[in-house]
Amino acid sequence: MTKALTLTHQVAQQLTRDIGDGIYPVGTKLPSGKDLAIRFGVSQSVIREVTERLRAHGLIDSRQGAGCTVTARTQSGGFRVPSALGNDRADLSAVYELRLDLEGASAALAAARRTTADIEALESILKSLADNLYTPESAVELDIAFHVAIAHATHNRYYVDLLQYLNLQIRQAVQTARTHSLTRERLPDDVHREHVLIFEAICAGDPLAARAAATSHLQNAAARLNLVIPDRDTFRETLSGGLTSPFAH
Question: Sorted alphabetically, which InterPro entries does this protein's record hold (predicted)?
Answer without folding.
Answer: GntR_C (IPR011711), TF_FadR/GntR_C (IPR008920), Tscrpt_reg_HTH_GntR (IPR000524), WH-like_DNA-bd_sf (IPR036388), WH_DNA-bd_sf (IPR036390)
